Structures are given as C-alpha cells and as structure tokens.
Amino acid sequence: MSSPSSPGSRLLLLASKLGYQTRSFAEAAKRLGVEVVMGSDRCHQLDDPWSDGAIPLHFQEPEQAAARLVEAVRDRPSGERGVSAILALGDRQTVTAAYAARSLGLSYNSPESVENCRSKLRQRELLRAASLPVPNFFSFSLNEPIAAILPRVNFPCVLKPLRLAASQGVIRADDAEGFISAVERIARLLSSPELQVTRERELDRVLIEDFIPGAEVALEGLLDRGRFRVLALFDKPDPLDGPYFEESIYLTPSRLPQATQNAILTCAEQVAKALGLSEGPVHAEFRVNFDSPWVLEMAPRPIGGLCSRTLRFGPERILLEDLLVRHAMGLPGADMTRESLPAGVMMIPVPASGILESIEGVERAAAVAGVDEVQITARLHDFIAAWPDGSTYLGFIFARAETVEEVEAALRHAHRELRFAITPRLAVAHPAAR
Asked: How far is CA 142 from CA 42, 118, 134, 139, 236, in A?
C-alpha cells in the first residue's frame, strides 16, 4: 500500500474541462491523501457544474489566469494548509502554471521556458541556435502571397500551425500544387469558429519545414531540478509519412538498438536544456533515420489522452498519474521504474469526418488475447472530425503481452473487430441562399 501524504497537503491541478486525464490525476491524488485544488477553463458564470470546486480560468491569458489562481488559493480558509505543488495537464495550461508557481514559490519550469515550448516556431529557433538536429524551416503569415513563399520551399515539406497539438492541421506537400492546397486548408481550419474562440496567439502563421523521413518515437520523461529521467520510450510502428499525421499505435519498450535509444536520450536532455526546462513531466517526439534522432517537439506536460494507462511502475504497478503526483509532492516512490512487461495503446483512428451513428464489436475487441481494455471516448450522435481538421480519437485500446510483437498483434486484431458507422454532416444552407 502506498504511503499517504501528510494531512492538509494540497496540489494545484490545471486542466481542461474536457480533458481525459483530469479524473485520473484527481483519483491518484486521493489515493495518496493529497487534496486537489482544480483550475479549469470552464465558464465562470456556471455554479460549479462538475461539483469539484474548480477555479474558472482563461488559459489564453496566462498571466491574468495565474493572478486569479493565486488570489483564489490565498483566499481559502485560514485553517487550510498552503499549496505544495502544481501540475498542468495540457499545453495551454502550462504557461498559467508557470506564472502561478513563480508567485507561489513552487518548484516548476520558468514562464520563459514554457513559452519557448508553446510556439513551434520559437522552439525551432532555440533548438537550431543550440545546434540540435532540427529540419530546415521558416514561417510565414497567411496574409502573404503564396507566390512569394514558394521559391523558399524545399519539397517534400510539412506545414504546421504554430500552436495546435495532436498533429491537427499538419499536412505534407510534395509539390507546388499540394502546397497551395495545404495552405488553403490550414487557413480554413485556423479561421474556424472552434479555433477562433480559443483566442490562441499566432493563428495567422504557419511553420514550413523539410520533411524528415524515418520512424517516429515518443519519449515520456521526468525532470527533477534539471536531471532528465526516461520513463518510457515508445515506438510508433505505423509509418507517419503523410499527407496527414494522425498517430495510432504506441509500443514500449522500444525495439530500436540500444545505441539509438541512448542517442535519443542524449538528444532529449539537450533539448530540455536548450528550452530552459528543469522540472516535471515532459513529452517529446523524434524522427529517427540512420540511427540518429531529429527533434520534432518537446512539451512540459505528461502524455496526452488516456495513453498514460499504458504505463505501470514499480512492484505495486502504480499508474503514471500516481508517479507524477508523488514526484510533485515529494512523496516516496517517485523513483520507481516501469514494469518490464511490454505494453501498448492504439489511439483508434477516425476514418472519416461525420456524425458517429453506431459502434459495434467492442465486446469482441475486448476479448482478444492480450487486450486489457477498450475505451470508447467518442459520443454517439456527435460530430467527429478526421485529421488534419480533427484532434480527438474515437477511443483507445490497451494491451499487454510477453513480447512487443504480441502487443502489436493484439491491438491490430482488436481494432479489426470494431465497426464505426459515420455519416456525413448535412450542410446547412444560409437563409439568403434559399
């Protein structure tokens, strides 16, 4: 049984109101006897709709959100103990967390280092200045004429919005025609009401970089006062060559040669240092070719979605959320290593945009040997967008087995058992057009 924290210990947890991970972290804190104070991007005019006492925040204004958070924490009843640590569960929340931590004197990454990670352009500039392996790149405004941009482009290239996550809006172009089409599609996405309402910065700019061939890997790490520790290295067995970059399967441990894995770790340590990161969870993505890593990105947050369920640590097989809460709160057991049993997750792909009408085969998929769980997160009768316009999956399949090959086979078998009926969304005619 885990050792609980001392009574009155409090953890500030910043998360999206729609985030998959919020409940998992709150439950982990409860198991450890840690009180959670939640900060969320919910409407401030609603009277605690989720009954969790969350402080409503506007993460698009991080300094103001941090000030609101600090004020709310300090206004708590005098009998409550002060906040001991802070964790942010998504990209947008990290900047608010950094400013709040600075005001509260908590151990966390500096606002400057977190801001370095929020913009893909800023991150690329810093890593290039540190002589780290990044593709050639430049950025342009969507207001610039494409004819002036094309002479600078090396094909094949990859176009990326500067601040979106989960490969949303990321498109490969192999020629000028494909480039023009990609720019137009990204411009429509960035001007959509769904994104404009976020008031995210740099929604009018796009990053262009050379396409780097090779396999992709994801690294889950943990920084402790600048010391980098690898929690897991995931292979992505499906080729991610475009034109879109929806991820699917993650497998750990990696099947790459140990020398290549060591090179990825060394590169990750250098990336964190160049960005100024020093504390807490990090999630990084790399391309590997000729046994050498190329940096795609690093973010100061844990792995997204429900993918953390793939990871178990120590003899108690505690969850990643438990490990990160222990680390943040300075509790015993934060140094546990991942279990030796191979594991994997499939983020169930979205085959087409439309209304999700029905789901079949979940019980058959869950019964496949090696499969731990099938979790469908998409809701029936909701619209779901396929990549590159979308950023959320239909659900997740988790598996464990004696070998990585068996894990991969189980995930693919389970996925074949699933059937999703998706119908096109009917276009609504404008009244003036009738």
From this structure: 31, 19, 23, 10, 32
Q: Which residue has the tokens 């900060």?
A: 39
CATH of the domain at 190: 3.30.1490.20
Domain membership of residue 71 (yes or no) is yes
Tokens for 284? 């990084």
The confidence band for 124, taking pLDDT boundaries of 50, 70 and 90, is very high
What pLDDT, in 10s, does the model give residues 213-248?
999 999 999 999 999 999 999 999 999 999 999 999
* CA R_g for the chain: 22
Task: Give yes or no for residue 433 having a pLDDT over 70.
Answer: no
- Residue numbers of the domain that contains 53: 10-109
The answer to whether 66 and 96 are in contact (CB under 8 A) is yes
Judge contact between 281 and 230, C-beta under 8 A: no
Find the farthest-apart pair of alpha carbons in the chain and give their distance in angstroms, rounded.
67
Residues with Cβ within 8 Å of 81's Cβ and at least 6 positions away in sequence, in order, are 8, 9, 10
* Whether residue 140 is found in the same domain as residue 105: no
The CA-based angle 417-418-424, given to 5 degrees, is 145
Together in a domain, 14 and 99: yes
Asked if 16 and 89 count as a contact pair (C-beta separation under 8 A), the reply is yes
Among the listed residues 4, 8, 11, the one whose alpha carbon sits nearest the alpha carbon of residue 280: 11
Residues 6+ apart with CB under 8 A from 421: 356, 357, 358, 359, 360
CA distance linking residue 253 with residue 242, whole number of Å: 25
Residue 124, H or E segment: helix 120-129
Q: Indicate which CATH number applies to the domain containing 382.
A: 3.30.470.20
The residues pairing with 251 across neighbouring beta strands, listed in sequence order, are 235, 344
| Helical spans, DSSP H, in 236-319 | 258-275
Q: How far apart are CA 382 and CA 267, in angstroms?
A: 41
- pLDDT for res 78: 46
The string over 16-28, giving b where at least 16 C-beta atoms fall within 10 Å of a residue's C-beta and e elsewhere, is bbebbbbebbbeb
CA angle (49 as vertex; 48, 55 as ends), nearest 5? 35
pTM tops 0.70, yes or no: yes
Contacts of 116 (CB under 8 A, 6+ apart): 122, 123, 126, 275, 276
Alpha carbon distance 411, 431 (integer Å): 47
Average pLDDT of the chain to the nearest whole number: 92
